[in-house]
Amino acid sequence: LDCPFDVTGFSLPSAPGVLIGHNARIAWGLTTPNTDTMDLYTITVDPNDSSRYLVDGESLPFEIVTEEIKFGDGEPSVQLPVRVTRFGPILTDIESYKDTSELPLALKWAGSDGGYDIVAALINLNKATDWDEFRAALKDWGMPSQNFVYADVDGNIGYQLPGRVPIRHKDHSGMSPADGSTKKYDWRGYIPFEYMPRIYNPARGYIVTANHAIVPPAFNAQLAEALSDQFGADSYFNVDHVPAYGYRAWRAEELLLAKDQHDSASFKLMQADNLSLPAYQILPAALNLDFGTAIPADVLEWMGQWNYRLDMGSGQALLYEKFYNTLSTKIWQDELQGEPSTGDMLMWSNHLLLDQPNNPIWDDLTTTNLIETRDEIIKAAFMEAYQETIGILGTDYRQWKWGDAHLAAFVSNPLGASGIGPIESYVNGGPVGIGGGTATLNRASYASDGGRYYATTISTLRIIYDFSDFDQSLWMHTTGQSGHPASNHYRDLIELWRNVQFLPMISSQAGVEGVAKNTLKLVPQPPN
Questions:
Q1: For residues 110 and 164, is the Cβ–Cβ distance under 8 A?
Q2: 433: closest CA among 399, 408, 465?
Q3: DSSP state of 110
Q4: What is the DSSP string of 376-416?
Q5: Cα distance between residue 206 and residue 212, in whole Å
Q6: CA spacing 20 to 30 A to 203: which of 43, 136, 157, 334?
Q7: Are 135 and 162 in contact (CB under 8 A)?
Q8: What is the predicted pLDDT for the residue at 101?
Q9: What is the DSSP letter of 100?
Q10: What stretches of 102-191 adopt beta strand conformation (E)?
């Protein structure tokens, strides 16, 4: 029995095909773009009938959908009525919002409109043999929008952004709730697939996607010029809402251009690269200050010797990350009245502020009779970071290691968060120390928690395709191939993954048979 469906790669449970992988002709990968496919709308309840809501003066009935939430251990289920509007469900009917005077909020999501077939898209993607068939498959890829990169055995490369990106009214960017009592802010439709960003065999010879801006701002203006007759002159087009600033893309491009010829070895180094461009921009601003006796001179000299890499064994990386987070808090917490995020847009904002010593953002608004300067805030942040670090790890800074504080924990929900220690240790993996950070190619964004930095976004999957011989391709993911905690292969990849090591991605029948340790045969039962 021979099956013409020949594809290898990685997928998710229940997916009817390979999400990231290759067949005999093409290979593809994906990263997440920053398309905005959801909006919130304020809903005006009809004052004469609370079972209805108003749109342009017309009273419309809420649709009531009853959701059943089931519990174990014989507990009775809960019936949860959900009000649904022309936009979508009301989100604010949960208990904590019921007694407020705020307007209800409804969610509009592009994925709920239908009209696309992701199953067909995935199957046709797996069968595609060239660029045209690849793009034809992605026409049916409605949600979620992804950056698809393409390469084939003939040496062609390409990029395509599929997905349903809403066209809004020019007075509504999607960044805040819109008024749902009028049809003015209804979506006009979706950007047609033929107008979505794509590129094929660019002259520069490479393509980079790293969650950064995929098109220049002028692209949205070009969309408006091309599509205004179809969707209205007052339409708003935007395919890239609040992207990552681009530190990782810069670094990837820098490494790609560093050599005329690349191979698997150079791509391994790229995947493991821990250079922090924000650290290169921000740390010198602190080291150029006079700390007097507040910071030992040997500590400052040691920090000045750092290579700006967030390697697991680097103590400078640990102190820098503590300093950076403290600095961000001191700059922004008083304005935001809360903790700032750790994204690289914030890193870039901090970098820009370094060249603006008199910017009022530097002033701490909580000290009403003082106006702090840039250097005072930077100095205070570095001293606080140093004192807190020695309070936790001691004064022997040469024993500090980023990997002792920067951790990846693999929690298998729901049992992994049950609060029952023996069960959690049985189903979970880690925590283990890792390198990298928010803006490194070896990505490992984190949330800070009492001197520990637990990873929240990581490089879960790494692949290097070899088009001269697909059996020489390499792969690695985070935990293990088995989903059964009793299996030896449940968490046996964690050490390899955290050290950015790889395994062969063998796909040919002869290659697989040559390395197989066990073979499972599924034999159909003969008919009676």
A1: yes
A2: 408
A3: G
A4: HHHHHHHHHHHHHHHHHH-S-GGG--HHHHEEEEE--TTGG
A5: 16
A6: 136
A7: no
A8: 63
A9: S
A10: 105-109, 147-152, 157-160, 166-169, 178-179, 189-190
pLDDT tens, residue by residue, 375-400: 999 999 999 999 999 999 999 999 99
Do residues 186 and 39 touch, judged by C-beta distance below 8 A? no
In the three-class reduction of DSSP (H, G, I as helix; E, B as strand; rest coil), residue 67 is classed as strand
Helix (H) or strand (E) holding 98: helix 95-98
CA distance 375 to 285: 8
- Rounded to whole angstroms, how far apart are CA atoms 452 and 393? 11
Element spanning 60, H or E: strand 58-61
Say if CB 7 and CB 21 are below 8 A apart: yes
Contact (CB, 8 A) for 182 and 56: yes
Domains along the chain with CATH numbers: 7-34+120-252 (3.60.20.10), 38-112 (2.30.120.10), 277-398 (1.10.1400), 406-512 (no CATH)
DSSP string computed for 204-252 = TS----SSB--S-HHHHHHHHHHHHHHH-TTEE--S-SS-B-SHHHHHH
Q: How far is CA 209 from CA 243, 250, 328, 474, 509, in A?
A: 11, 10, 27, 20, 32
Residue 25 DSSP one-character state:
S
Place of tokens 């990997």: 403
Mean pLDDT over residues 138-148, rounded? 95
Closest CA to 146 of 25, 22, 29, 253: 29
Q: How far apart are CA 334 and CA 351, in angstroms?
A: 18
Q: What Å distances lie between residue 505 and 130, 266, 385, 490, CA to CA?
A: 22, 17, 44, 18
Q: How confident is the model at residue 100 (pLDDT cuts 50, 70, 90)?
A: low
Give the three-class secondary structure for 39.
Answer: strand
Give me 3's structure tokens: 């099956």
What is the pLDDT averaged over residues 498-522? 93
pLDDT over 90 for what percent of the chain? 77
Ramachandran bin of 199, using left for φ above 0, alpha for ψ from -120 to 50, beta for the remaining angles: beta
Q: Is 91 left (phi over 0), alpha (psi -120 to 50) or beta?
A: alpha
Q: SS3 for 449?
A: strand
Which tokens is 479 given? Answer: 């935990």
Distance CA 411, CA 257 (A): 38
**Confidence (pLDDT) at 2:** 64
What pLDDT is attached to residue 346?
77
pTM metric for this prediction: 0.91
- Burial environment of residue 142 by CB neighbours within 10 A (0 to 12, 13 to 18, 19 or more): buried
